[in-house]
Amino acid sequence: MADYNPPLARKVAVVTGASRGLGAAIALELARRGATTVLVYASPRSDAPIQKLADQIRALPHKPDVHACRTDLSSVHGAKALVSDLSSWRGSDLKIDILVNNAGVERVRPLSEISIEDYETVYNLNVRGPILLTQAVLPHLNANGRIINIGSVGGRAGFKDLSLYCSSKAALEGLTRSWAAELGGNGTTVNCVNPGPVPSEMLGNIPQEIVDMQKATTPIENRLGTAEEIANIVAAIAGSDGSWITGQVISASGGWAMY
Ligand code: NAP
């Protein structure tokens, strides 16, 4: 059909942590649905995977535009550096429609061993990162914007040795609800998607007994999720179909967590 427009055509989506895992799948799915995507990542080792993903996106049948930006979102200046890079790329009239705060980090530490550095590593990226980036994006966010925070089922679970990570994801749920209340006036929605375990570099560092327990008690097929399944849930609420859902936390875990 020559005049068919994909659902996210003319939308600009910023996806953090797009170099691998969930973020890469989310960026690809948003692009597949027509969005121009911005791939945000942090480490030089991810230059090559990001270029590969950008090539994959450009090769889609509708040839969506894509832009990559390396910036440290755990730093105080990372978000502003990203927006300034995007302004150079799009011109002074930078407009963004979808922000996916996906970049995250975990530290496996018993309470007695948590250091200030561990706290800063986890909280500066998982909590301060979305605050500063959402703040920086806000002046450029179109009406009917979509802010989608990637939390974790850990935000409502008591996983041993993961208190920094679990509490940071609980904080993200709190931010989601308040931002939904603040930003809804022009149709902007703010939601949190909480994945259960999905194979990724991060999951490789989670204690195996936690992952085994989750797998065994997951109602859908006693299995792990896939990055594509999480991406489909994010993409489903990123477009106009998501206009009447805000301030919600969606458990994307095959029913492991039922809210
Ligand atoms: P991952 O494979 O470890 O990927 C993390 C991503 O975050 C990478 O793209 C990384 O970029 C980026 N990143 C790390 N530090 C950064 C920084 N300082 N500034 C900007 N970007 C940074 O993680 P994942 O498993 O895909 O997880 C993605 C999100 O889903 C996280 O928020 C995680 O908490 C959540 N989640 C994951 C699971 C799971 O089972 N996988 C379950 C629940 C929730 P570089 O490549 O440049 O380092």
From TrEMBL:
<dbReference type="InterPro" id="IPR020904">
    <property type="entry name" value="Sc_DH/Rdtase_CS"/>
</dbReference>
<keyword id="KW-0521">NADP</keyword>
<dbReference type="GO" id="GO:0016491">
    <property type="term" value="F:oxidoreductase activity"/>
</dbReference>
<dbReference type="Pfam" id="PF13561">
    <property type="entry name" value="adh_short_C2"/>
</dbReference>
<feature type="domain" description="Ketoreductase">
    <location>
        <begin position="11"/>
        <end position="202"/>
    </location>
</feature>
<protein>
    <recommendedName>
        <fullName>Ketoreductase domain-containing protein</fullName>
    </recommendedName>
</protein>
<keyword id="KW-0560">Oxidoreductase</keyword>
<dbReference type="InterPro" id="IPR002347">
    <property type="entry name" value="SDR_fam"/>
</dbReference>
<dbReference type="InterPro" id="IPR036291">
    <property type="entry name" value="NAD(P)-bd_dom_sf"/>
</dbReference>
<dbReference type="InterPro" id="IPR057326">
    <property type="entry name" value="KR_dom"/>
</dbReference>
<comment type="similarity">
    <text>Belongs to the short-chain dehydrogenases/reductases (SDR) family.</text>
</comment>
